[in-house]
Design brief:
heterodimer; A: about 300 residues; mainly alpha; MetI-like fold; 16 helices; globular; B: about 325 residues; two-stranded antiparallel sheet; flat; MetI-like (chain A); Carbohydrate ABC transporter membrane protein 2, CUT1 family (chain A); transmembrane helix (chain A); transport (chain A); cell membrane (chain A)
Chain lengths: ~300, ~325
């Protein structure tokens, strides 16, 4: 392509009056004009988060006067102290962490096992099961939440972390995504290990999984994001504040401490920080996860 | 597409075809048992908390159930009551209005931003990050943050308006504004998703296509309208379906900010379902409303699938 286009471009440039240097327009600005549009827009997206961070280190006096201070006069950590001291936040943080990490681990394990069986193994009923599972991906949560509540109640799990963990143990999404990825791997590698007498589990563990890092991280990222950020199900399944997750705790806390905005914002920062840090640390694979799961299923 | 792995070490003498076949046959017998062991956990969870509840929900929707005492069969009464319930009608109206605003706006903004961001200039990575970051933040955190910013008395938004000599607004406390404010908050967090998807698609536009059009003398505008945008059709279809499904299911943000108020102006369908089932303890009635929503979602998904199959450009893979 470049070979054919280079002479063509040269020919076109040759017809341009020699005053303008080839391939370059006269510039009014020392930088691309796009910055004039993009910088304010990007700022517009950033300002609410900046305000969140700033107000979490303001004193309530600064927040509640009118008009409120736009910049804290000094870093006031009383909001954080309040949240970490007399409230349940550390407990909620731990609950959220437990639920999310268990969900990630079990989705990886069960997703890989199920996905591998569907991708590579022949067994009675595999087609029916796969189609059924695909169909469940299209079921909206609202349709299942009432019976799921009743099931959890019968299992005696309502109002415990178990009620949050069990429904998120494995999603059809994890199984299906990993199946698709395993199908794209060359079979020969597995067959070689297979001939050597490795069991299926061994092949999966030492041949397939090491090659599947991108898909595994997609499952991990999206599972973590989904469980950490969920509010609907904890709201339904949990009654007592000792079992709250951070999201549920934060909204209840806001309702109870309506005027203590610095503490509410400090709690909000704590709620947001783990996903924010995870995102900033692994932005590229994060975005890849979202686009690939969105566009390629 | 995943990168193909670098070749691993193969056994020195490759096995013959016959050997491979014999090994396969030997394994097939124990294979089925192993396979079932592999899929059983997924099958249990997915059938138990996917398929079974769908059936249960259907049965519930024909019953009066308060989640505690045994339920009573009432036939189609729940559905009948739904058609007459002004609250449900308002919830449907609010949800459709929210969807009709959020979906096109998020896609148009997303596309414009993606087109602007799809170039190699300094800081573009920072811009992309800033625009996308709100997407990873939970609806709860967004709701709490914006309740604070938009607080009519102490909020920063009204003091900015004050500084500009504009009248103070009620925002989420004003029945005439609350739903639009919710759309705006969702746009703040959801546009980044459209941007990321569009950016990925723009980068997939084959350079040869653009090169060819350029050689044919296409100008910038022509290139955009007749070459770039048509290749985005499958992505547009995907985003419409995805965003519609997301907005018909909006709940968390509403719960955190307005609880359906003021005066029911932000009661959306899922909020209605939740309220009926878990606040008023009329689970059968809630299940009926949930079925109405689910059928609507199914029709949308099936409809676009038919459309997509007829269309020339097809999106690869399952996008629901």
């Amino acid at each position: 392509m470049t070979a054919t286009s280079a002479p063509a471009r040269a020919a076109r440039d040759a017809s341009v009056p020699p005053a303008a240097p080839p391939g370059r327009r006269r510039r009014l600005l020392p930088f691309s004009g796009w910055h004039l549009a993009l910088a304010p827009l990007a700022l517009l997206f950033a300002v609410p988060l900046l305000w969140l961070l700033l107000s979490s280190v303001m004193s309530d006096g600064e927040i509640n006067r009118f008009p409120p201070a736009l910049w804290p006069s000094h870093v006031d950590l009383s909001g954080y102290r309040y949240v970490l001291g007399n409230a349940m936040f550390p407990r909620w943080f731990a609950n959220s962490l437990i639920v999310s990490l268990v969900a990630v681990a079990s989705n990886l394990v069960f997703g890989a096992l199920g996905g591998y069986a569907f991708a590579r193994m022949r067994f009675a009923g595999s087609r029916v099961l796969l189609v059924t599972m695909l169909a469940t991906m299209a079921i909206p949560f609202q349709l299942t939440m009432i019976p799921t509540f009743l099931v959890m109640k019968r299992l005696g799990l309502i109002d415990s972390l178990g009620a949050l963990i069990v429904p998120s143990l494995v999603t059809p999404f994890a199984v299906f995504l990993l199946r698709q990825f395993f199908l794209s791997l060359p079979r020969e590698l597995e067959e070689a290990a297979w001939i050597d007498g490795c069991s299926r589990l061994r092949v999966l563990w030492s041949v397939v999984l090491p090659l599947s890092r991108p898909a595994l991280s997609t499952v991990a990222v999206l599972t973590f994001l989904g469980t950490w950020n969920d509010l609907t199900w904890p709201l339904i399944a949990i009654n007592h504040d000792v079992h709250y997750t951070l999201q549920l705790g934060l909204t209840t806390f806001q309702g109870q401490h309506h005027t203590k905005w610095s503490a509410v914002m400090a709690g909000n920062v704590i709620t947001v920080l783990p996903v924010l840090l995870a995102f900033l640390a692994a932005q590229k694979s994060f975005i890849q996860s979202i686009t690939s799961s969105g566009l390629k299923g | 597409m995943p990168r193909l792995p670098a070749p691993l070490t193969l056994p020195p003498d490759a096995p013959t075809d016959a050997e491979v076949r014999r090994a396969r046959r030997r394994r097939r017998r124990s294979e089925s048992a192993t396979a079932w062991a592999f899929v059983t956990p997924s099958v249990l969870v997915i059938l138990g908390l996917g398929i079974m509840p769908v059936v249960w929900s259907l049965l519930l929707s024909f019953q009066a159930d308060d989640l505690v005492t045994p339920s009573r069969w009432v036939g189609l009464q729940n559905y009948h009551a739904l058609t007459k319930d002004p609250n449900f009608r308002q919830a449907v109206h609010n949800t459709l209005l929210y969807t009709a605003l959020y979906v096109p706006l998020s896609m148009v903004f997303g596309l414009l931003l993606a087109l602007a961001l799809n170039r190699r200039i300094r800081l573009v990575g920072l811009y992309r990050t800033l625009i996308f970051v709100p997407f990873v933040i939970s609806a709860t955190a967004q709701g709490v943050l914006f309740s604070f910013i938009l607080d009519p008395e102490f909020g920063a938004a009204n003091s900015v308006l004050h500084a500009l000599h504009l009248p103070a607004q009620g925002f989420l406390t004003d029945p005439g504004q609350a739903l639009y404010v919710l759309v705006a908050i969702s746009l703040w967090s959801g546009t980044g998703f459209c941007v990321v998807i569009y950016l990925a698609a723009l980068q997939d536009v084959p350079p040869s296509l653009i090169e060819a059009a350029r050689l044919d003398g296409a100008g910038r505008r022509h290139l955009l309208w007749h070459v770039v945008l048509p290749t985005l059709t499958p992505v547009n279809v995907f985003l419409v379906v995805w965003q519609v499904i997301e907005s018909l299911q909006v709940f968390d943000l509403v719960y955190v900010t307005t609880k359906g108020g003021p005066l029911g102006s932000t009661t959306v369908i899922v909020y209605f379902i939740w309220e009926m089932a878990f606040q008023n303890f009329t689970a059968g009635y809630g299940a009926a409303a949930a079925y109405v929503l689910a059928v609507a979602l199914l029709v949308i998904a099936a409809g676009t699938r038919v459309l997509r199959r007829r269309g020339p450009a097809r999106l690869e893979g399952a996008t629901r």
